[in-house]
Amino acid sequence: METMRVAVDGGTLSVLRFGSGPRVVLAAHGITGNGMSFATVAGRLPADWTLLAVDLRGRGLSSGLAGEGGLAAHARDLHAVAATVGAPVVLTGHSMGAYIALLAAAERPDLYSRLILIDGGLPLPVPPGADLDQVLAATLGPALERLGRTFESADAYVDFFRAHPALGPHWNPDIEAYVRHDTQPAEGAAPEDVPAADRVPGVSLGGASGAVRPRAQAPAVRADGHDLLTAVDAFADALRALPVPTLLLTATAGMFGDPPGFIPEHLVATWQAHAPALRAELVPDTNHYTIILTPTAAAAVAERITDPNTWPAP
Fold first, then answer.
1. Residue 215, CA distances (Å) to 26, 186, 212, 257 in order
2. How far apart, in whole angstroms, are the C-alpha atoms of residue 140 and residue 130?
3. Where does the pLDDT of residue 182 fall: very low under 50, low under 70, confident under 90, or very high at 90 and above?
4. I want to staple 93 with a disulfide (CB 3.0 to 4.6 A). Which of 58, 101, 127, 130 is the partner?
5. 3-state per-residue secondary structure call for 91-117
6. Would you call 17 exposed, middle or buried from its count of C-beta atoms within 10 A (0-12, 13-18, 19+)?
7. Tens digit of pLDDT for each residue in 131-157?
């Protein structure tokens, strides 16, 4: 793996390049993730493929990228990467990255040959009149709390994730590399930077030597979470007018490792009726994270990325 830098609005975007083959797939990660989440998939691609996994604005090595945020900005960043390496490329995205990829393909179909949505991309209904701040707090609250913590070491951060019910039972070196890519030194952090409610075992309050913080930035996560809730119509319009062959891969279990999946089967059926060009496939024995982070599931995803004959355009 090597790191590329691509010029975008506000600075340069970090892109992790896996492989050196002439065929290219461009990948976007989830809301608090980073490009290393696609390392397992990249390792299952044939030798004539390259996977480019972006570190989205506010995450990974792009955590300090200035400029406008939000899903539309992420989509424009994908366009910049695709144009830099020579379009058209295959486009994929996981979780929030699937929504970004959907918007990108709808906006610039000339840059993308096919689209693979991984456990994301379908509009998630928001109750009429719902307080969006409360919805965000309910869905992103634990993640935002984590982003505000200072951990005594990178190992402590890894241990925090190893205890996650959707990840711990499936732990492997690629998951650990993905977690470590989200750490940055936190020397000099003041105790008041960590709210009292967040002070848990393994957390440093004084920025001692070796302490780390997540690279993912809470303001970027909040802005993107807000867009996910308010861009429902844009997602729907993009699905109804899919400009490129599109496959949706869904997991059988959700964000905490238990069924149902993050994308319910009834929602998949509904959108297949409204978007005839959308193909869908359930990836067995997976949850929202392991669908790209474990070898067997990643191999299935890689096969779908590389073999369009498994899901020809209608």
1. 22, 10, 9, 24
2. 16
3. very high
4. 101
5. EEEECHHHHHHHHHHHHCHHHEEEEEE
6. middle
7. 888 888 888 888 999 999 999 999 999
d(CA 168, CA 7): 37
3-class DSSP state of 49: strand
Alpha-carbon span 39 to 43, nearest angstrom = 6
Reading the block at residue 204, the tokens are: 């440093």
For the four alpha carbons of 289, 292, 298 and 301, in that order, the dihedral sign comes to positive
DSSP string, 217-280: -HHHHHHHHHHHHH-HHHHHHHHHT--S-EEEEEESS-TTS-SS-SS-HHHHHHHHHH-TTEEE
The CB density around residue 71, as the number of other CB atoms within 10 Å, is: 23
Say how far apart CA 194 and CA 212 lie, in whole Å: 12
Beta strand 246-251 with 112-118 is: parallel
Q: What is the structure's pLDDT at 191?
A: 42
Digit-coded pLDDT (tens) for 24-80: 999 999 999 999 999 999 999 999 999 999 999 999 999 998 777 799 999 999 999
CA-wise closest residue to 60 among 229, 177, 188: 177
Encoded tokens for 174? 């690629």
Q: Is residue 135 helix, strand or coil?
A: helix
pTM: 0.92
Structure token pair of residue 249:
């891969």
Q: Which string of DSSP letters, residue by residue, matches 5-34?
A: EEEETTEEEEEEEE---SEEEEEE--TT--
Query: Encoding tokens for residue 92?
Result: 């994929």
Between the CA of residue 308 and those of 77, 193, 247, 303, what are the distances in Å? Answer: 25, 49, 10, 9
User: Around 103, how many Cα atoms within 13 Å sit in the side-chain half-sphere?
Assistant: 22
Determine the Cα–Cα distance for residues 116 and 124; give it in Å rounded to an integer: 18
Nearest to 51 by CA among 308, 302, 304: 302
